[in-house]
Fold this protein.
Amino acid sequence: MMKLRMAMIGGGEGSFIGPVHRMAARLDGMIELVSGAFSSDTEVSIKTGTALGLDKARIYGDWREMLHKESILPEEIRPHFVTVVTPNYLHYAPVRMALESGFSVVCDKPLCLDTAEAEDLLDIINNTGQLFCLTHNYTGYPMVKKARELVSSGELGEIRMVIVEYLQGWLSDAVEAAGNRQAVWRVDPERAGIAGAMADIGTHAFNLAEYVTGLEISEICSDLSNTLPSRVLDDDGSVMLRFSNGTRGTLVASQIALGEENNLTIRVYGSRGSLTWRQMDPNSLVVMWPDRSTQHFRTATTFDEMGTLSGFHSRLPAGHPEGFIEAFANLYRNFALHLSAKLEGKDHDNRFDYPGIIEGIRGMKFLEAVVSSSDKNSEWVAI
Amino acid sequence: MMKLRMAMIGGGEGSFIGPVHRMAARLDGMIELVSGAFSSDTEVSIKTGTALGLDKARIYGDWREMLHKESILPEEIRPHFVTVVTPNYLHYAPVRMALESGFSVVCDKPLCLDTAEAEDLLDIINNTGQLFCLTHNYTGYPMVKKARELVSSGELGEIRMVIVEYLQGWLSDAVEAAGNRQAVWRVDPERAGIAGAMADIGTHAFNLAEYVTGLEISEICSDLSNTLPSRVLDDDGSVMLRFSNGTRGTLVASQIALGEENNLTIRVYGSRGSLTWRQMDPNSLVVMWPDRSTQHFRTATTFDEMGTLSGFHSRLPAGHPEGFIEAFANLYRNFALHLSAKLEGKDHDNRFDYPGIIEGIRGMKFLEAVVSSSDKNSEWVAI
Amino acid sequence: MMKLRMAMIGGGEGSFIGPVHRMAARLDGMIELVSGAFSSDTEVSIKTGTALGLDKARIYGDWREMLHKESILPEEIRPHFVTVVTPNYLHYAPVRMALESGFSVVCDKPLCLDTAEAEDLLDIINNTGQLFCLTHNYTGYPMVKKARELVSSGELGEIRMVIVEYLQGWLSDAVEAAGNRQAVWRVDPERAGIAGAMADIGTHAFNLAEYVTGLEISEICSDLSNTLPSRVLDDDGSVMLRFSNGTRGTLVASQIALGEENNLTIRVYGSRGSLTWRQMDPNSLVVMWPDRSTQHFRTATTFDEMGTLSGFHSRLPAGHPEGFIEAFANLYRNFALHLSAKLEGKDHDNRFDYPGIIEGIRGMKFLEAVVSSSDKNSEWVAI
Amino acid sequence: MMKLRMAMIGGGEGSFIGPVHRMAARLDGMIELVSGAFSSDTEVSIKTGTALGLDKARIYGDWREMLHKESILPEEIRPHFVTVVTPNYLHYAPVRMALESGFSVVCDKPLCLDTAEAEDLLDIINNTGQLFCLTHNYTGYPMVKKARELVSSGELGEIRMVIVEYLQGWLSDAVEAAGNRQAVWRVDPERAGIAGAMADIGTHAFNLAEYVTGLEISEICSDLSNTLPSRVLDDDGSVMLRFSNGTRGTLVASQIALGEENNLTIRVYGSRGSLTWRQMDPNSLVVMWPDRSTQHFRTATTFDEMGTLSGFHSRLPAGHPEGFIEAFANLYRNFALHLSAKLEGKDHDNRFDYPGIIEGIRGMKFLEAVVSSSDKNSEWVAI
């Protein structure tokens, strides 16, 4: 495959997710960062880009300028795609312009601020024919692929109940007041949107539940809370779920669960088998059966019972732990495979999947429903 | 202390909980089973009692007869208390008559069929002055005592969020149709009452949440489900919780969570610390802090940080796993300590606690609220 | 079956193992303690026996007196067996006299002080026809039974390598100097014998390895250490193992492994499967296969793949943790089943096994070999 | 810092460790692969190098040719260092020539075939002043750094006992006979050297024990085994350890431990604290204390109790699992930091450490001792 060139919007010094995207893009040697508007503060942008070894001419303080200038570069140096890693409120405009400037796009989640924006992006994607990846990165873990496969193959039977949770503790205190850069924008409705924890991590949980089960959540009933009174947006919330096929479940997302690091866990109970996957132990998938002992599937074992799908998404034999960066890199790798295949006029093997605009729209609808239900004292609201 | 004599109602051959009560009563050598009406089938009762080494004269086929005859025995052989281990529908009447016949009582949970019955029993207990223990046995685990202590001492700060769940998988299939004796009565509204899984195990989860936090759940919003259409009662349900002090939470109880054995887990998140306790690993209590590494408290370590409360409730030094029977026996032991102190005119150290009628009434109110909320398509209902 | 009467030697106030034996004997309702010489200090013995509710006439300060007097009691009140729970140096004489007085015997481990004593006891057992149980209690765990079964059935193939370890930390400090009663005699060669940690816990590890594998350890090469210079006996030691069939392995026993509670772990690697069992998580048995995912067997699941042997040795369905006391009680239960069958002239189902004199002799030989090898700067010594 | 250019010897198609080195070198964006002799089969080398996007002119079929030609390239494109990822027998010559050609070197472990070769390399390194990194990659894990720090700071007190093990199961069957490329050379004395499992993974365990404890192992007593009779070299072995300060321990290395993935575990017991680290759960470090509950340290928490050393070696906040590749990359990163500082005439912060020639010599001495001891039927042999 061809090596792809990437431009980045956001991710300047002090960013958390920017470096993650860069490491993920770098890991498999398929992608080269060639330009960036890392910050609206030109000095910060230059400092970041220089440290990354970029040509100064291709470091920008304004993403509009970057998209414009980079789009008219000669084909052999022009970026193939743009990665957007800014706060939520600054997703829609850059993604839109990047697409319209002839770039494929990778964008951090959640997609944007509302369903209207999201559907607008869908139209533009459809019209431009560009590829689009939304980094719901947890679906990149090999054992999440395996989980999805166990459900879709019918091995777990009919799915009856789902428990998904994403618990963090880092907003237990008002760290935003102390200037924690990651916190400041996440608790600010102007920059984060209509939801706090639900937008930041609840959408991951929602996405994971739909990805693993292959089902749509059709109705939700929620109770959101701003545990710290100083906050406007939710920092904790519970949601009861009804899926279109009658499956029930719960989703909990909290950033005030003191002591939790990054506890994203999904449990899926079926009529013939059940599974548990925990991001904190990502290379294991626990599968329970009615008639034999619980099995612990592991990333990259060579047994025939291991699905090929998970095998495709690991790099090393079993016992060599692959973590967050590798899972994130799986999205970049699959996106790169797809994009290079497209550019070379080849077919893409769609088992190498990645989340896109549809998942982005689902996320927006989920957020609107979850806020609406909570506002109505926990009425059931359709998604 | 004096050795106490016990009579038993229920627990005949094929019973699950009867033998548990007997082992629990036996473990610490404080209690002797002296008589029983183990089954309404006299032959079964005699067979059970004989196998237990009882005097034939004190084995009965009718519990009313037993209560009557045993109550007029001479003081030196008369039972000190009666244990009721029948299905739910058959709690109220025997408990009532036992109390009125001058016996203290141990009763399996849930207390009875509704709040009216429960409050009636409260009156009788108050009037007779007899002691009453309701076997919400999970509160007998040393690490549950420790958990309660960590909250009540303020070490965890203000409690903000609670997640409690009790998951089993044994009703994933319609085992009642195949004659599973434990299942048959539990899925039958005549014998189980207004709720299925919520009565059988949800009340344990509810009780555990209130016991550990020392808080009252004031409002609930629930979604119950009879996953197997052949069932009338719930076999799975989700509940959102609001506590009187503003704490929020969720409770899930399911008996169709295929593969789960007896997964009762509580997580309590506070402003200064958080805890997790799992019945499947009962001798550990995981406590998370904002400013130092997670600690794994263990039953019966000798460290000064171990609360005396948990120390009192273990029998062996750390590393000698104590399980379900030992925890159950802690209720019997504390009840026996209380009863013998009362009979000997001594004071009881109330750190040796056990659940009683108040917990029984709370359970009834919880069940009524949870069913009512679900019937109203998940309106919030006060408890 | 008939209820059996038990007399006890040792186990007075302050004893650790005495109460364990009593709880274990009590749990299943098959055995009644009727008499005891709990301490050579008559007052202590009376205090202990009285607290246990014994008839004062049957509480003794001298075990010889007890054995004599109890042996001539009428058949209907005479004890059926005697339990010896004194320190090591005080096993041989009481066991011998008990057997010769017509009692079957349960004795704590290690059997005695040397092979000569052990073989003498074998002769007496053979001559008297009494039953004898040595409480290598860890073999009573259901999952240890299952482990043995997996090996003996050939499911793991040829056994190639064994790692067994028993790690404790309670002798990390010189607690004997502070008067810790359990420590004082264990570090004293007069009372403990030729070995310290190896006698106290190494023999358990050795016994477990031979029990699970069904193989004999034929040669050992050891390096013992008295980590605390104030000690004469080993408090820590490593042993390399060769089994009679060529299997290799290691055994580590330490009481200075600070922080370890009671970490007895065995791992057995075969040509077709491997297993791990940990006393700290006793209801799980992890089994690894070459061609499918690791399985976690659990006590008392109902799956057909669970061996009946483990099922026989649990009391409750899966998910109700059974611990140290229950495993210990399994030895008492099996011994009681055997003894009552013998007394009633019935056959005993030998799947209900318990360790006896042969295991006691093996333990003595192991200790002699392990000390000898270490003394010879780790030469291989045959057992 | 400056971006460094790397040449590679070995790592052609089908290599396991070659791609690991490349991902590790790539992850942090400090190093660029510019040339390679990936295979002695020129076609394979070209295919590999082309897929990696290298300039064809800088892909070689002969490593001598590469070292020669690359060494005379202009400064601005000449590699700064050479990475050697060939089988053991092909380490010495390329490392030597690379050093003598003016390159710093990264080399896979074990260093070479014997102590003589190793000491020769030491001389050359000293004479040339080039930097040298030996990829005992497990020391790159943040929690291994933390472990070392806990020991060196004295928090664990005096170290008394060490248990280290490295267990794999992939050579349980004679996969070499079936052509498994990784197995074929590892079981061949011509290519692997005097030891099999001990060289391949035992040296990692040995290195980890010395790294974490900061102590030297001075004497060993071993029992090696070729479990599969078709093998000449050990595939399993036990070693008893004596450290120079009197600490004792055991080391087990096996590649026939069926079912084990990559179970490298170290336990260090001190007089004031103990620790356990497991490669299979690499982001946790369990620390046990005499007077408070066990703590689970975690990679990259922000608590002040976390050593800065581990913090320096992680990339993401706690809860974002970092695995094998990240740990491996820490060696490359530290080596790159050191090399670029040297090239820029700056000081290197030696907390950013990596294993080098000294560790390589220790490994050779260990292998010679362990083979010698086993050959002498387990005599103690000094290292």
About this structure: The longest strand of chain D covers residues 159-167.
